[in-house]
Design brief:
heterotrimer, A mainly alpha (371), B alpha/beta (471), C mainly alpha (264), A: 371 residues, mainly alpha, Arp2/3 complex 21 kDa subunit ARPC3, 13 helices, globular, B: 471 residues, alpha/beta, Rossmann fold, 6-stranded mixed sheet
């Protein structure tokens, strides 16, 4: 099966087993996911099924509208997120799954054309995560709710992990050498250390700095500071990571961080915006996961290219030394988190305008009402 | 009447929706005999839909609500019946034709088979039953058509047929002609006559008692209770539009305008019309006569293929739609195309904000618009929590708040009850008194003659006639 | 409004009565699956030309050659991108064929790009031939007859028919909001902010419709009782059953061959 192997560098020469094993496991996981969705869907009410049908149409309509309006986004998961919020993760997963399957057989522009079906697992996971975050209440928290602190802590944790990854890469080096067993073990253990840094940060900040209460005057200050720090650190780490150890990369990362910090501060200072924060955390993390899952599909099937405008980005990443997989992931990273954050925001705004008669048709309708 | 012939018995029915303080129905009791035609009249919000849903067995199983009392259909209590028990015994028809089509079938025949499939009728029997119904309801010629390509009236007949095919002895209808033009409404009325003649028990809810004139009996609902007679509406004080003094209306000149759609259809043929500042003109005509195409030329939504449109003697050519919105306020027929805010007040203030009005000036416009449409008390509510007729008024208020020089109304009275139609008329009069030009498309001739100076008739893209309405 | 629904609701379907049209939907679906498996698991040098020739032959025999050629327009951008980006920017490519200024085309890159693109094209052709000759209704009805939940099939069919209506409504909303003074264009930030008044009505009106549609479906007994019967039955034949058996064997054979590495 030499010609089948797809290695991290993108060459088609024989390489280490783990990558092929990973692909096999992925196929098994997808089949399991589809089976689970199928089993859960037997209990869906008529209202949920009507909603899913409408949501699929929403996904495809708005997705093709975005292409027509030439926006640098996808916006093809708004229906999926909506269903996840109103009817739960599994209904959301079914929506995403069916959307991509249906889109590939319809002559409607957008998505990935006729090959959209291959991204069905990604869309399903987006639905699962939307339902997950909805169950955590992201769409219902008011600005003075203490639970927002939890999301701030989470964001700070992700940022801390990103910074840790950066530090590790610049000192010890994260290198993943497909031929060296030792380097693989080191990669995994370093990964665990980085994850631990993130978790510990979340834990500490949750218990100290972010025990916010609505009437606490320090709330706003913490919110502003935390938002600015998290956003800045995240952007800095991302850019630095993607552009590898070059001076240009460092410079760009610093500029990006400062700009984002400024934007974050000006945003956080405006009154009622705290309730958007959990929404954005939910959207951002969903986008990250989506990019992660989509990258191997894009790399393995399309040779890393999707035919969209973002291919220029892919080319750029390749010249900077990234592998086929790496550049596919990088391209996903630059568009998916933003796209999903905007989608979550739109759904959030719409849910606040949802009339009672519709909300009461769905089991999770009450979750979308701020108490 | 004897117990045996009582097919529907409602006893002490009280229903309250979650999140609402006042119950939708309070201690309602009534009986309907086999084969009887009962009309249920009442204003919007009186509880007609709730009663219809309860009789059809939808409450509380599908529509959640707190219920007390009983609804006995041939002895079975619809309130507690298990799903599937009432199927085929009672059917219900709603007012929106497109939402009642399953949306999954490519021919009318297959659509009519939808209910039969769910009933588990053997495939060999289906065609027979479908043929009987299409013959009886006169829609045989539509059998192979695609449901989404039919007109509203035809779709509603198909929707009724798809319920009748399931063979219910009791048929409940909730304002079935609300979204139809007069032809469609007449077809529905004829269908009901046929069904009644065949022995179906009919319960029909309408806000306009005139439509129920031919019925055996009419009960009247008001605020959830059965009352002997409809109370008279509170008198509406004469309305006045006093914000934006000094702003006048604009004249509208349509010069030899023709419009051809990309698919080749000539919707307008050499139409010329002059409407002076402060005039109120109604445009009537059959569906497809070009009325909507004509008024859409006025705010730039459509551009003439030849000829031109002038506002205050200045051509609209080259000015984009959003700029013309400062002069021409367009109230669309379907408010669903515009509503997206979480409160009536925010919705109404959207237009003024887009036009750049801010602060107290904008606030005054919004309050005036709310007062004109009688929505001041509802301004904190979600527009979609109001019924369809009030939603239309919300959209109209949104247009009024833009303080237009020319007000264009597309079918402002469809879906309104008597009070609503009266209010729209008063708004037209008030805007005209304030010096604005008002143009309306309507198929309600009575409304046109009463409130407008001139009535213009359109037929097949041409202006047929314009003269003052007969006195 | 006539015609809008038919265009999208019937998808790529081209009316006809060729041999391929008359085949059972599941037979054709298995055929597409076989092509996908063969394209990705067998050595490209052998499988791609053979499959391409086979599919071309089927297309010509079914009278769909011209429709097929016209449909190749759809993946053309994607295919071009794959070839170009990989030829020019392939990591690890050393054998330079052509230098164009600072960029250079490498043999490894060109090979990889051409192989990827060809695989995609073959899969596309197989799918499109399937779509040309199969109605969604028929396909779903056969799946339901074999155990797929009829409620899921309903969701798919409804969604497909809703799309053109929603697109039509979206244009209506665009017009209606512009008539309230909403201006499109401008900076990216402004364009993103105009999304809510454009997307909002689509979502809200659709959700309100969901309530009415649910009630209408319940009135027609949707999902109320088990034992749903079917109005339309898609005809099957002995030939189809034989073909399906052969295709299943072929798919399994390809997988086995690929895993055991018998053919290199």
């Amino acid at each position: 099966m030499d010609w089948l192997t797809i290695c991290p560098e993108g060459a088609t020469t024989p390489c280490v087993q783990p990558v092929q094993l990973a692909y096999l496991l992925a196929v098994v996981a997808v089949v399991a996911l589809v089976a689970a969705i199928g089993r859960r869907s037997r209990d869906f009410t008529t209202a949920t099924l009507s909603l899913i049908a409408v949501a699929i149409a929403i996904n495809i309509t708005i997705g093709s509208l975005t292409v027509a309006l030439r926006l640098p986004l996808y916006l093809d998961s708004i229906g999926t997120v909506l269903v996840g919020a109103l009817a739960g993760p599994w209904a959301g997963a079914l929506t995403g799954l069916l959307t991509d399957l249906v889109w590939s057989v319809l002559p409607v522009p957008g998505g990935a054309g006729p090959t959209t079906a291959l991204f069905a697992p990604v869309a399903a996971v987006i639905g699962l995560m939307a339902g997950f975050w909805a169950d955590r209440g992201v769409f219902q928290l008011r600005s003075d709710d203490a639970r927002i602190g939890g999301f701030l802590a989470l964001a700070l944790g992700i940022a801390a992990a990103a910074v840790a990854m950066l530090v590790v890469q610049n000192t010890v080096g994260l290198g993943f050498d497909p031929d060296d067993q030792g380097s693989q073990i080191r990669f995994v253990s370093l990964g665990i250390v980085i994850a631990l840094v993130g978790v510990v940060t979340v834990g500490i900040s949750r218990r100290t700095v972010f025990r916010l209460r609505g009437d606490d005057p320090r709330t706003r200050t913490y919110l502003i500071t935390a938002t600015a720090l998290s956003a800045a650190a995240l952007v800095f780490a991302l850019i630095r990571l993607l552009l590898a150890p070059t001076d240009v990369g460092l410079f760009l990362a610093a500029i990006g961080a400062i700009v984002v910090a400024g934007l974050a501060v000006s945003w956080a200072r405006r009154g009622d915006h705290a309730r958007f924060f959990p929404v954005w955390v939910g959207g951002f993390t969903t986008g990250l996961v989506a990019a992660l899952i989509a990258a191997p599909i894009v790399a393995g099937v399309f040779g890393g290219v999707t035919g969209g405008g973002t291919d220029a980005l892919v080319a750029l990443f390749r010249t900077l030394g990234l592998s086929v997989f790496g550049s596919a992931f990088a391209q996903g990273l630059t568009s998916d988190p933003l796209d999903k954050t905007i989608s979550f925001t739109i759904v959030f705004v719409v849910l606040t305008a949802l009339p009672i008669t519709v909300r009461t048709m769905f089991s999770r309708g009450e979750l979308t009402v701020a108490e | 009447m004897s117990e045996r012939t009582q097919v529907v018995r409602v006893q002490g029915l009280t229903i309250r929706y979650p999140g609402r303080r006042a119950p939708a129905l309070q201690d309602v009791s009534l009986t309907v005999a086999h084969g009887e035609r009962l009309g249920i009249a009442g204003r919007t919000g009186a509880g007609k839909s709730t009663l219809a849903l309860a009789v059809a067995g939808f409450i509380p199983r599908i529509v959640r609500a707190a219920v007390a009392g009983h609804v006995l259909l041939d002895g079975t209590d619809a309130i507690v019946a298990a799903p599937g028990v009432l199927l085929g015994r009672v059917g219900i028809v709603f007012s929106s034709p497109s939402n009642q089509l399953s949306g999954s079938r490519l021919t009318v025949r297959a659509e009519l088979a939808f209910g039969l499939e769910n009933l588990g009728i053997p495939s060999s029997e289906m065609d027979g039953r479908i043929d009987v119904v299409t013959e009886r309801l006169g829609i045989g010629h539509l059998a192979e058509r695609e449901p989404s390509s039919l007109s509203g009236g035809e779709q509603q007949r198909v929707a009724m047929a798809s319920i009748v095919t399931m063979g219910p002895g009791i048929l409940v209808l909730d304002e079935p002609a609300a979204e139809l033009d007069p032809n469609g409404a007449a077809a529905v009325a004829a269908l009901l006559d046929d069904l009644a003649a065949a022995g179906t028990t009919i319960l029909h809810a309408e806000h306009d008692p005139v439509a129920l004139g031919r019925y055996d009996r009419v009960v009247i609902l008001e605020a959830g209770r059965i009352v002997p007679a409809m109370s008279s509406s509170p008198a509406v004080e004469p309305l006045a539009w006093t914000v934006g003094p000094g702003r006048a209306g604009a004249s509208v000149t349509i010069e030899h305008v023709s419009h051809r759609y990309p698919n080749g259809i000539e919707a307008l043929r050499d139409v010329s019309l002059r409407i002076g500042t402060g005039e109120a003109v109604a445009i009537v005509g059959a569906n497809g006569s070009g009325k909507t195409t004509l008024v859409k030329q006025l705010n730039g939504l459509l551009r003439p293929t030849s000829g031109r449109v002038l506002l205050d003697d200045v051509s609209t050519d080259g000015t984009p739609v959003d700029r013309l919105a400062a002069t021409v306020g367009f109230a669309f027929q379907d408010p669903g195309d515009q509503l997206f805010e979480r409160s009536v007040e925010r919705e109404v203030s959207f237009g003024p904000r887009q036009l750049g009005r801010v602060g107290p000036q904008a606030s005054a416009l919004v309050q005036a618009a709310l007062a004109m449409t009688g929505l001041t008390g509802e301004r904190e509510l979600n527009p979609y929590d109001l019924d369809r007729s009030r939603r239309k008024l919300v959209a109209l208020a949104g247009v009024l708040a833009m303080d237009p020089a020319v007000l264009v109304l597309d079918e402002p009275t469809t879906g309104q009850d008597r009070d609503g139609v009266e209010r729209v008329g008063l708004i037209v009069r008030a805007m005209q008194t304030a010096g604005r030009t008002v143009i309306a498309i309507t198929h309600d001739i009575a409304f046109a003659s009463r409130w407008f100076d001139r009535v213009v008739v359109m037929d097949e893209g041409r202006l047929e006639d314009h003269r003052p309405p007969a006195a | 409004m006539t015609g809008i629904a038919t265009d999208v609701a019937t998808g790529y379907y081209v009316a006809g009565s060729s041999w391929l049209h008359r085949r059972h939907p599941l037979t054709k679906l298995l055929g597409v699956l076989f092509v996908v498996v063969a394209v990705f698991l067998l050595p490209p040098a052998v499988s791609l030309p053979l499959l391409a020739a086979l599919l071309a032959g089927i297309a010509i025999a079914a009278g769909l050659a011209r429709s097929l050629l016209r449909s190749l327009r759809i993946p053309s951008v994607l295919v071009l991108s794959i070839v170009v980006v990989n030829a020019l920017f392939f990591p690890g490519g050393r054998d330079v064929l052509l230098g164009v200024g600072p960029l250079s085309i490498t043999r490894e890159g060109l090979t990889f790009g051409l192989v990827s693109a060809s695989r995609l094209l073959v899969v596309f052709v197989a799918s499109v031939l399937f779509l040309f000759t199969t109605l969604a209704d028929d396909l779903l009805e056969t799946l339901v007859a074999r155990g797929v939940s009829h409620r899921i099939a309903f969701v798919v069919l409804t969604a497909v028919q809703l799309i053109p209506r929603m697109q039509h409504r979206a244009t209506g909303i665009l017009a209606a909001q512009q008539a309230r003074g909403l201006s499109l264009g401008g900076s990216l930030g402004r364009r993103i902010r105009t999304l809510v008044p454009l997307v909002g009505p689509v979502l809200l009106a659709s959700l309100v419709d969901v309530r009415e549609r649910t009630l209408a479906l319940e009135a027609r007994g949707f999902g109320a009782r088990p034992g749903r019967t079917a109005y339309r039955v898609v005809p099957d034949s002995g030939l189809d059953r034989a073909l399906r058996m052969a295709l299943v064997i072929a798919i399994v054979a390809v997988i086995v061959v690929a895993i055991t590495g018998v053919v290199r």
